[in-house]
């Protein structure tokens, strides 16, 4: 799938310490099907003078996922948790009141989140969104 200037996307980081995370961005240049220049919505430059702009490989970019109303999660549901300016992939490991514990396999850590900072995890593949429960 090709993206064009102005398209809202998410960028999957391959850098150490950021594996399993997705960051909202806007495409500002298309360099063919191999790379894109993106401007992040929440990530800033090192000196914090403005939004971070970088060139990323095409396989690190996916469309912005659809909003899905989640009324609750079950144990082991795959979710994305919003933290540190991005969405991090984990799985539900417990519940405390209206909050959920999310376990992150990559980092072997469990963190408690309010439900409004969670969304069902979706993968982008073969031109469509794929959920662990159903296809979107």
Describe this structure in words.
The chain has 136 residues and is mainly β. It has 2 domains: 7-63; 77-131, SH3 type barrels. 0% of the residues lie in helices and 55% in strands. The protein is built from no helices and 12 strands. The protein has strands spanning 8-12, 21-30, 35-44, 51-57, 61-63, 78-83, 86-96, 99-104, 109-114, 118-120, 122-125, 128-131. Strands 1, 2, 3, 4, 5, 6, 7, 8, 9 and 10 form a 10-stranded antiparallel β-sheet that branches. A two-stranded antiparallel ribbon has the order 11-12. A hairpin with a 6-residue loop joins β3 (35-44) and β4 (51-57).
**Domain unit count:** 2
Beginning-to-end CA distance, first to last residue = 17 Å
- Beta content comes to over 45%
Shape: globular
Give the low-confidence spans.
none
Structural class: mainly beta
* Element-by-element helix/strand order: EEEEEEEEEEEE
Number of helical segments with 4 or more residues:
0
Q: What fraction, in percent, of the residue positions are helical?
A: under 10%
């Amino acid at each position: 799938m090709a993206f064009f200037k102005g398209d809202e996307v998410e960028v999957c980081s391959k850098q150490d310490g950021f594996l399993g995370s997705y960051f909202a961005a806007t495409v500002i240049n298309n360099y063919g099907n191999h790379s894109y220049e993106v401007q992040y919505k929440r990530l800033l430059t090192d000196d914090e003078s403005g939004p971070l702009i970088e060139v990323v490989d095409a396989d690190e970019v996916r469309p912005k996922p659809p909003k899905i109303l989640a009324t609750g999660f079950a144990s082991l549901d795959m979710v994305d948790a919003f933290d540190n300016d991005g969405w991090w992939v984990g799985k539900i490991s417990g519940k405390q009141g209206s909050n959920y514990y999310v376990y992150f396999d990559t980092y072997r850590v469990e963190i408690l989140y309010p439900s409004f900072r969670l969304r069902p995890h979706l993968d982008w593949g073969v031109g469509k969104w794929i959920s662990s429960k159903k296809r979107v």
